[in-house]
């Protein structure tokens, strides 16, 4: 989707990807297929382009620094270093005074002492390689604690207070090298099994919470000094606070609504930010709901009923061309526009059930 947006603005795109064939490679002008550790391939790639950006957080630090020595990397390896590890990210939030849920770090997987600081209910999250709820376990009882200690033994984790939130929202902030920032309006996010299921724009939150969420995202992006996109996931608590949950220095699943419902898509905004162009306007064209399509929709290998989306004039289908539908794997999404959020949501859920 980034490649399409860059090409629309006249750029050519070179993709570096360890796992080929990949969806981005299929539409890019060039593709290099090599592991991140293949320094020769990485350096040849870096030398062939004007600027490098990424949409994946688990890239090792060494290779990133090698790229950065040759060509501008946006956001920088420093920014990714903070965001790719939960323990570092939370320590950064704490050190910079950003509101977040109470947490303690469990070195070597010592969950019990970390949980005794934070209390129950809480959630254990591995510091590295977590996404879509992977590497997480909710702790509701002392028995869960015993189980978690066995599961996470020897792994660096954080134990975090379970937040009784009113709403979950995310704000994507674009920032250029000259320090210009622009936020997309907050998306309200509904998760199922810890995986994003539905995003709703405009979010059904009070104006004051919306302003606070946007302000927080801008301050996070500025403090990181990031160039590109910074997505900030937040909890609106039942007691009226806005807490930062996670930061992703890249386009975000909860921003996919912008491809159809916003004046500028998040992918075009990423192109503009990393290429030093003026940022685009981010007004909502019409209330929009985005629904993720997971591999689970391919029951017993049968394709989902795409007509359910395609026969509806207010819906748009986006499939990523991933080779194999696996349960929990994000295969695509669809968006629905409506006269109001309630109207768009109703139709989106009806289409989802027919899919
Ligand atoms: N402390 C928490 N309290 C309540 N819900 C949580 C908490 N941490 C995570 N969750 C839920 O699990 C989802 C996934 O967790 P998150 O920390 O965002 O990890 P990731 O998105 O990397 O899997 C969140 O979006 C939220 O719905
Ligand atoms: Mg998350």
Give an overview of the whole structure:
This protein has 355 residues and is of the alpha+beta class. The protein has 3 domains: 2-73, Rossmann fold; 102-161, Dna Ligase, domain 1; 165-354, D-amino Acid Aminotransferase, Chain A, domain 1 (2-Layer Sandwich), CATH 3.30.470. The chain has 13 helices and 15 strands. Strands 7, 8, 9, 10, 11, 12, 13, 14 and 15 form a 9-stranded antiparallel beta sheet that branches. Strands 3-6-4-5 form a 4-stranded antiparallel beta sheet, sandwiched between helices. Strands 1-2 form a two-stranded parallel ribbon. Helix 1 crosses helix 11. The structure holds adenosine-5'-diphosphate (ADP) and magnesium ion (MG). Residues 101, 123, 125, 130-133, 160, 162-163, 168, 191, 194, 233, 245-246 line the site of adenosine-5'-diphosphate (ADP).
Write a concise keyword list for the protein shown above:
Dna Ligase, domain 1; Rossmann fold; globular; nine-stranded antiparallel sheet; single chain; binds magnesium ion; 3 domains; alpha+beta; binds adenosine-5'-diphosphate; D-amino Acid Aminotransferase, Chain A, domain 1; 15 strands; 355 residues
Hetero compounds: adenosine-5'-diphosphate, magnesium ion
Order of helices and strands: HEHEHHHHEHEEHEEEEEHEEHHEHEEH
Q: State which percent range the strand residues make up.
A: 25-35%
**Class by SSE composition:** alpha+beta
How far apart are the termini?
A: 23 Å
Which architecture of the largest domain does the CATH hierarchy give at level 2? 2-Layer Sandwich
Residues in helix, %: 25-40%
Characterize the biggest β-sheet.
Answer: 9 strands, antiparallel
Fill in the CATH topology of the largest domain: D-amino Acid Aminotransferase, Chain A, domain 1
Q: What would you call the shape? A: globular
């Amino acid at each position: 989707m980034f490649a399409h947006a860059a090409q629309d603005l006249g750029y050519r795109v070179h993709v570096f990807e360890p796992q080929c064939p990949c969806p981005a490679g299929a539409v890019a002008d060039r593709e290099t297929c090599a592991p991140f550790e293949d320094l020769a391939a990485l350096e040849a790639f870096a030398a062939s382009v004007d600027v490098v950006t990424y949409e994946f957080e688990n890239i090792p630090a060494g290779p990133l620094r090698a790229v950065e020595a040759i060509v501008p990397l946006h956001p920088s390896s420093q920014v990714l270093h903070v965001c790719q590890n939960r323990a570092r990210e939370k320590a950064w939030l704490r050190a910079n005074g950003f509101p977040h849920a109470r947490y303690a770090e469990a070195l070597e997987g010592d969950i019990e002492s970390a949980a005794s600081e934070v209390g129950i209910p809480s959630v254990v999250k591995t510091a590295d390689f977590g996404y879509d709820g992977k590497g997480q376990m909710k702790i509701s009882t002392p028995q869960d604690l015993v189980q978690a200690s066995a599961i996470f033994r020897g792994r660096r984790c954080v134990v975090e207070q379970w937040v009784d939130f009113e709403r979950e929202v995310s704000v994507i902030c674009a920032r250029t090298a000259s320090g210009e920032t622009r936020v997309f309006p907050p998306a309200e996010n509904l998760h199922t099994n810890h995986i994003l299921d539905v995003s709703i724009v405009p979010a059904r939150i009070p104006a004051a919470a919306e302003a606070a969420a946007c302000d927080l995202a801008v301050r996070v992006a500025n403090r990181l000094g990031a160039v590109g996109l910074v997505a900030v996931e937040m909890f609106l608590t039942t007691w009226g606070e806005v807490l930062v949950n996670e930061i992703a220095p890249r386009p975000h699943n909860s921003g996919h609504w912008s491809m159809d419902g916003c004046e500028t898509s998040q992918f075009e905004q990423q192109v503009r930010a990393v290429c030093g162009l003026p940022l685009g306007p981010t007004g909502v064209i019409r209330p929009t709901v985005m629904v993720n399509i997971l591999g689970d929709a391919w029951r017993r290998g049968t394709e989902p009923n795409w007509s359910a989306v395609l026969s509806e004039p207010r819906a748009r289908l986006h499939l990523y061309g991933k080779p194999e539908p696996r349960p929990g794997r994000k295969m695509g999404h669809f968006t629905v526009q409506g006269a109001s959020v309630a109207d768009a949501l109703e139709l989106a859920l009806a289409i989802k059930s027919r899919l």
